[in-house]
Amino acid sequence: MAPVTLASIDQKLAMAKRCSHEGVVAGAKAAAVAGVAAAVPTLASVRMLPWAKYHLNPTAQALIISTAAGLAYFVVADKTVLAQARKNSFKDA
User: Fold this and answer.
1) Residues 47/53, Cβ–Cβ less than 8 Å
2) What is the pLDDT, as a whole number, of residue 7?
């Protein structure tokens, strides 16, 4: 096992920051796509279906869309960070 030095700690910190930044970027892209993918059918159904028009007020519509976007963000960001961490852990071996 290699000795822990200040340079190795700085390198690990920089790698962790890069991993988390890649996760944020990938999550933001996925959230944008999921937001549009959830907004189109939600807003279309409110205009066309009488049940949806009666039961889904603007708050419910926003909640449906933001839930889909938030879920996509966290799932993709987590998977990206874990994949990068796994890839970086094999570099040291």
Assistant:
1) yes
2) 73
Q: Are 92 and 12 in contact (CB under 8 A)?
A: no
Q: What is the pLDDT of residues 41-77, one digit of tens each?
A: 999 999 999 999 999 999 999 999 999 999 999 999 9
For the chain, the C-alpha Rg in angstroms (whole number) is 20
Residue with tokens 């990206």: 80
12, 58 contact by CB (below 8 A): no
User: Mean pLDDT, the chain, as a whole number?
Assistant: 90
Q: Any idea where the domains of the chain sit in the sequence?
A: 23-92
CA angle (33 as vertex; 30, 34 as ends), nearest 5 = 80
Q: Phi, psi at residue 4, to the nearest 5°?
A: -85, 120
Which element (helix H / strand E) includes 2? none
Query: Which two three-digit tokens encode residue 27?
Result: 């999550």
